[in-house]
Design a protein that fits this description.
The protein is mostly beta strands. The protein has one domain. It contains 1 helix and 4 strands. The protein has a 4-stranded antiparallel β-sheet with strand order 1-2-3-4, covered by helices on one side. A hairpin with a 2-residue loop joins strand 2 and strand 3. The protein is globular. The two termini are 19 Å apart. The mean pLDDT is 94.
Length: 49
């Protein structure tokens, strides 16, 4: 997932301290945020717009 997002989507301004990308998935606009919580549990937050 990380490789696909970083190579096919365009990087945007960060959301807080977390890196953000924008693009589309099957024609639907999406925002991808690589969240690094202080408590651990690094994950992607994907929002379809």
């Amino acid at each position: 997932m990380t490789n696909w997002i970083k190579t096919t989507q365009r990087k945007g301004a960060p959301r807080g301290n977390n890196a953000r990308w924008h693009g589309t998935l099957n024609g639907i606009s999406a925002e991808y945020v690589y969240e690094v919580p202080r408590s651990g549990g690094v994950h992607w937050d994907i929002t379809f717009i």
